[in-house]
Specification:
It contains six helices and two strands, in the order αααααββα. With 115 residues, the protein is mainly α. It has a two-stranded antiparallel ribbon. β1 and β2 form a beta hairpin. The model has no long low-confidence stretch (mean pLDDT 89).
């Protein structure tokens, strides 16, 4: 299983330009965007103090995104490449999931604000 520390580097490479180094939606590209990036440190607070693992995974892999909402997150095909690890996204079933995606999701879990 990838560690959150593995995801920190991937986050810096794929996410920080828009979401900011700390995940607050204040990256260097954020001001130029018509729809501001989400503050990723509030994911758990917005979901009843529970980190929405499956939802976050679906946003990263593109499954939950739609062009109907306007410009949003880019495709991250490289994250889908590589080996798979069994990962339970909250439904009790360990599903083969790209290691790099799991690493980013686990990193995002570590930067959540609490009440």
């Amino acid at each position: 299983m990838p560690a959150a520390s593995d995801g920190a580097g991937l986050y810096a490479e794929y996410c920080a330009a828009c979401h900011g180094a700390g995940g607050r939606g204040d990256g260097p590209l954020a001001r130029a965007m018509s729809k501001p990036p989400k503050d990723l440190t509030l994911l758990a607070l917005r979901h009843g103090d529970t980190f929405p693992t499956a939802r976050v995974l679906n946003m990263v892999d593109g499954y939950a995104r739609s062009d109907l909402d306007g410009p949003g997150m880019p495709e991250f095909g490289e994250l889908l490449a590589g080996d798979l690890v069994p990962y339970d996204s909250g439904d009790g079933i360990a599903t083969p999931t790209p290691r790099r995606m799991v690493a980013i999701v686990e990193y995002l879990r570590t930067i959540q604000q609490t009440r």
